[in-house]
Amino acid sequence: MKKSKRKWKIVGFSILGIMILGLAAFGYEYYQLQPNNHFKSVPVVSTGKTNDKKSPIENIEVKEPVFNLLLIGSDERKGQKIGHSDSMMLVHVDLNKHEYDAISIPRDTRVHLDGYGYTKLTSVQYIMQAKKGAKKGVEAAVKAVGELTGVPINYYVETNYSGFQAMVDAVDGIEMNVPFEVKLTHPWYAENKNKVINAGTHFFDGKMVTEVVHERYSLKNGEYGRQQLQEEALKGIAKKALSPNNITNLPSLVKSIPDFVIATNMSNSDMLSLGLAAKDFNPNTQLEYHQIPGIGKKMYDDILKANNYQLVIDPEKIKELVATHF
């Protein structure tokens, strides 16, 4: 009887020891994921300086968890290995103040690509992917945005339309504010041709969100209108994913990232730390969104060897935005 009791005591203490070690490991991991501990150093994909040969830089030490993140939406189709940068949003992340400033970068912006000449921003990634592979392509797009804005860029996350759909479905759909009427003139799915989405708040699954953020031809403000729709979709995703009810599901959501992200230099722990810092995200008070005005012109494209529509951005407007918000 005594031997039996001693045996169960040993088993009990062993289980208790495992539990204590497990809790200690969890506590240490949670401590490491806190932004002030996790983001002590960040990479630099683009320094923001024109023709800077030092980019990308492996890592630099930072005093505070403050960095710049470029979100890229590619038109890369399933089975393809190259695509255009169809939408871009540069986000200044301040995890100390819990503030986020976002600037949409128009896809048709006129930029200079070393060795090729002037072309549209959307073409930079496509050309460099075709010539040097996927990673060099996305890094070239990041570098082009950095040089255009003068902002150093630390992280990038790229998805495509099927990935964006999967992202929304991963959080079981979102509430999205549609600021104006949208007619789907170029849908991904034939059954949605000419469907009209009225202004207002709607619950959408991934399929419909993808349709809405893709539309620009029927919009009064064209590309700028589409940027607004993309902003509203991202706000809806962030609000849903980072809500108190979903924050415990964040680790499993991060594990499913390969289902909807086609390129990134953020690790799973980077994303988890960012998500934990942004819990209870309120886009109405924490996010400030900006657009860069420009003038559309028919101009010569050195890559296509022909004239096409390009957007000429006022460099002074960019400097003003960056100085104020970045």
Any overview of this molecule?
This protein has 326 residues and is α+β, with helices and mostly antiparallel strands. The protein is built from eleven helices and 16 strands. The protein has helices at residues 2-33, 35-38, 121-132, 134-149, 161-170, 206-214, 222-241, 250-255, 268-277, 283-286, 315-325, and strands at 41-44, 57-61, 66-74, 85-94, 99-105, 110-113, 117-120, 155-160, 174-178, 182-183, 196-197, 200-204, 263-264, 287-291, 294-301, 306-313. The strands form six sheets. Strands 13-8-3-4-5-14 form a six-stranded mixed sheet, with helices on both faces. Helix 5 packs across helix 6. The radius of gyration is 23 Å and the shape is globular.
Summarize the structure.
The protein is globular and about 55 Å long.
| Span between termini | 72 Å
- Let me know the average pLDDT: 86
Determine the number of helices (DSSP H or I, runs of at least 4 residues).
11
Estimate percent helicity: 40-55%
Strand residues, percent: 25-35%
Main sheet characteristics:
6 strands, mixed
Rg is 23 Å
Order of helical and strand elements: HHEEEEEEEHHEHEEEEHHHEHHEEEH
Instruction: For the largest sheet, list the strands in their spatial order.
Output: 13-8-3-4-5-14
Shape: globular
| Total beta strands | 16
Structural class: alpha+beta
